[in-house]
Amino acid sequence: MTRSPTVDRPETSSSERALDGVRRFPARVLRSVRAALERATVSEVVAIGLALSIGITIGTVLVGSQVAVLASVAGLAAAGAIVLLASEQAVVRGVGGVLAVPVSLLVLAPTVLVADLVRVGGVGRYAGVTVWALLVAAFAAGLFVWERFGDGGVRRGATGTVVAAVGVVGVALFRLVPESAARERAGVAAADAAGWLWNAVVVADGPWALGSFAVLLFATAVGLRTSLNYVALERFMPPDRRASVSAALDGLERGCDVAVRLAVVIGLAAVVVPTLADQVESTLLTPGDLAAVVPAPLGEGLAALITASSLRLVLCLVLGLAVGFAGLEWLRRALRRDAARVFATLVAPALGGGVVAVALAWALAEPVLAADPAAGLDGVAPASVVALAGAVPPFALAAGVLAVGLVSLASLSFAVVGLRTFRIVPRRAIGAALAAGAILLLAAGLAVVGRVELAIATAAGAFVVWDVGEYGDGMRRDLGAGSTTVRAEFVHLGGSLLSGLVIAGGTIALYRWTAVDAPVTDPAYAALAVVTGLLAVVLVAWALRG
Prior knowledge:
Oligomer: single chain
Radius of gyration: 27 Å
Shape: globular
Distance between the termini: 65 Å
Number of helices: 20
Order of helices and strands: HHHHHHHHHHHHHHHHHHHH
Largest sheet: none
């Protein structure tokens, strides 16, 4: 038996393998997109289309077509960047870092608009909520059929965004360090900024006291709960104490859940109460307003608790310890695996973001200089920070704008992570639930501006989006992507649409009767109202059963 001669194959270096991976990346992306489209059910495709169309339509009514389209496109682009940054492969994460920088500019524009509208106060707050809801709805629609949505994928993508921001900040510092004028002012500006941050977070002597306390409480609860789930402290205890320690940690996690809900309530109260109380001149509810609105001594006690510097300092320390323990646990796990691969996967977004930031910063240097960021900071930041912004080279300023954009992209992702962590949205069909919740916020905005009937129809549309998307997700997960489910899905889709129409029509009819102050005295009208309500209930139950 003769053997075929062996052929010596030249060994490929790591750089050649990396270049080969880059060359194959477009084909890999196309295969992934094709697989996602094949995996999506008819119901999920319809739910995505409904979420985007309702969002753009209602957003046009509330904030204009240009802002609505911009927010929706930014949400979809953010979803694509997060998917790439959540990959386990270093090359894919590097490409995600490259794409995340220009995408962050799309996200930054509506985010700045949201901040400006909230700062204006009054009805502007609800316009800001509308823009943010459009972002979230499009973001959820872009991740509808992503297998890792709700299973840690968004969290990993958000951390990849933060790493890309670190790379962009490195580019800015590389250009900033040689400037002697900037170096001279940087130390004073850093000290003043630290003092300003200390006063805002710990001392809390300004009008943003309730808002800063809500943000601090939310961040501490999220960080502590995440660290408890990640570190597993009970393994450090003796075997006979692990059960009791585990029970205590479970109770602490439940306390974190309560703290998050309390933080959300405080934040909403700080924003909504001034408008409801006709305090349109005030941006947020202040501790003094809280003491005046809530009966004594409860109001005074709440105001003193929220402004207590010792409590805020404890929350900051707990947050720091939680982040530190989580970081040490991540380092311990990384050292037990392939260190080179872990390091490459970690720094890939920073390298990708830094490379594209160089080109974009040069392109945006003149527009950023013309915008005069120092003038925008005047009256908001300390004077030394304003002076430093005036001494920073335009290239470094443009890179700083890109870093802020990446932070806004990360904040959008971390907001979704927080909603999932504390079970405000479910793990299954999270895209449908998130999109439906955002559409409900749009309905609330319509109600605020007096478009009640359109608000009712929008709320019914939110129900349809959730029901159709949840049904499609269940069919895909339970029966598989290759199953023949078109007939059942169309039957369920028809039932959901019909039930939404009946619910909206019946509610609008009842609203009109109430609005004109016309009592339903005719037996025929009364019977019609009762039958309409019963029919709506029956159709909803039938649609939910599938």
